[in-house]
Amino acid sequence: MGIFEAILLTVITAATPLVLAAVGELVTERSGVLNLGVEGMMVMGAACAFVATQMTGSPYVGILAGIASGALFSLLFGFLTLTLVANQVATGLALTILGLGVSGMIGEAYVGQSGIKLSQIVFPVLSDIPFLGSLLFKQDLIFYLSIAVVAGVHFFLFRSRAGLKLRSVGDNHASAHALGINVIRMRYLAVMFGGACAGLAGAQLSLVYTPQWVENMSAGRGWIALALVVFASWRPWRVVAGGYLFGAVSISQLHAQAFGIGIPSQFLSALPYLATIFVLILISHNRRTTLINTPASLGKPFVPDR
Amino acid sequence: MKKILFALATTAAVLGFSAAASAQEKVKVCFVYVGSKTDGGWTQAHDIGRLELEKAFGDKIETQFLENVPEGPDAERAIERLARSGCGLIFTTSFGFMDATVKIAAKFPDVKFEHATGYKTAPNLATYNSRFYEGRYIQGQIAAKMSQKGVAGYIASFPIPEVVMGINSFVTGARTINPDFKIKVVWANTWFDPGKEADAAKALIDQGVDILTQHTDTTAPMQVAAERGIKAFGQASDMIKAGPKTQLTAIVDTWGAYYIKRTQAFIDGKWETTSSWDGLKDGILTMAPYTNMPDDVKAMAEATEAKIRSGELKPFTGPLKKQDGSEWLKAGESADDGTLLGMNFYVEGVDDKLPK
Fold it and tell me: What CATH architecture does domain A3-120+129-293 belong to?
């Protein structure tokens, strides 16, 4: 295995949770809801996935637990912001803080235990393709899911009637309501989808990335996922590009350090974020395309008139 | 109605007073933690020390702790709260609590404070630290014996003297066995991020190191080493559970003895401001069992540990050169504590440029 291949394998592991959490949040935001609680839902998913895996011995049960915990946790956000019409920004931040605390309690008895790593699923013939085979066809279930979810979301948003409705809810909830679309139900579903994706991303952290549980193990990845949604200007495949770019820069800076090139490590550590800012500048340069993609009702509360 | 309220208030006052009185009879020792007490590393080691303290004094003392206290203004409030609640002796266990502790210590002259790994003292504020670098010297020697490629990987956190000292000690130890030994350093620029620590470990292994050591807080690098089939060293706590066939040894922080000693001095009224910097011989750090290595390497490690304990061997003893090849210590000369605590240069054999 060459060094380049090794680097790419590490990049894939690092990028998968970002892509998953970001694409989930993308759907939530496309429906007009800004959920800043990605970090909290992610860390809840990590804790629940790990605990379920340790209890049953099966990482697949863990994956389900991660997805379910993320979705359930986001339901709390949905209830507060959609039913009680609480401020979305404040509720999202509260969700993150709550998630960090509750996940610590759930996982307390499991700190320091070595987990079970999710095994790889090898596609027979395909995995023998030189180079690409081991990168794309010798991965764990969550990696395949991440690609499938992005493809599915793209199809749903831009090729299906339900997706059109969801986008209309996000762009102008009053009109959508007047057309007879149940705005609140649509938004509940979008919020829960976002939660499920964040929970799955969390499961990737505690079952694949580092099979263990420590408090606060998401270490800010939820916030990066939030930035990725803007970075991708609310387009699913651009989330993949952004996630992998971010992963590639953060992994290559570690390699650059180990290689001993004389660039200050603080600068190298900041590189992924600098790259993000740079691309954001490039994107926002063209205001019109940004406006077309930004959900017009993002973050605005909706109260049905009857 | 007024009468009832008055009665309630009096009762409360009496109750409060009696609670305060009993607190004075019993010495209250308090701790401020930067992380969670089950973090598997730094804070857990302090909490184990607190439990040993409780066990040693039984009913004579009472302990209290605040965990997950962020460094900065919040720390001030947390420490002040403890000082007001009748704590006689307060340990603040992170470098970043330094200024907050100094400030509160000035406000509460009757309370004694102890700050870990800092350098500011006051009449009622002592500091304490541990010579972790002694353990790193032993690890370096083991690494040089066990590595086939002669290159070890080092995952570092922040370029502060404490960490630089560890890197230098590791290399110095390794070079007593293999004069050509080299280390590759990766700065994670975090104390705590399992994912990033694992990525750093993978990068180092992909670049050909066959021994891994870390100065960050989680067991993620140990797990990666186990997965890739190389050997590694644990940090702050015994990490053998994360790598039963991987861990060679670990530096284990054992603060209990120090906490017991200082609490005893406090009870006896003999507490004084000190700047304690103890090492292996005082039992403030211990080496986890030497495992996954041949008997001769184990014997060598034990011999080195014994020599450091007896004071016969000081890790930073010349002849030693700085990274650029200039002379640092002449033959037989040992580095003084001041130089070590302000260490901002590499010794020869580090394959990295020190971030400034």
Answer: Orthogonal Bundle (1.10)
Model pTM score? 0.86
A-chain residues near B188 (CB < 8 A) = 269
Report the residue of chain A nearest B191, measured CA to CA: A219
Tell me the C-alpha distance between B102 and B113, whole Å: 9
Q: Given an 8 Å threshold on Cβ–Cβ distance, is A219 in contact with B356?
A: no
Chain B contact for A2 (CB, 8 A cutoff): no
Phi and psi at B287, nearest 5°, equal -100, 130
Residue pLDDT tens, chain A, 306 long: 688 888 999 999 999 999 999 999 999 999 999 999 999 999 999 999 999 999 999 999 999 999 999 999 999 999 999 999 999 999 999 999 999 999 999 998 888 788 889 999 998 888 888 888 888 888 999 999 999 999 999 999 999 999 999 999 999 999 999 999 999 999 999 999 999 999 999 999 999 999 999 888 998 899 999 999 988 889 999 999 999 998 998 898 898 888 877 777 778 778 878 877 887 787 777 777 777 888 999 999 998 875
Domains in chain B, ordered, with CATH? 23-130 (3.40.50.2300), 132-252+284-351 (3.40.50.2300)
In sequence order, the 6+-apart residues with CB closer than 8 A to the CB of B222 are B212, B214, B232, B234, B239, B242, B243, B246, B247
Q: How far is CA B153 from the centre of its chain?
A: 21
Instruction: Report ipTM (2 d.p.).
Output: 0.88
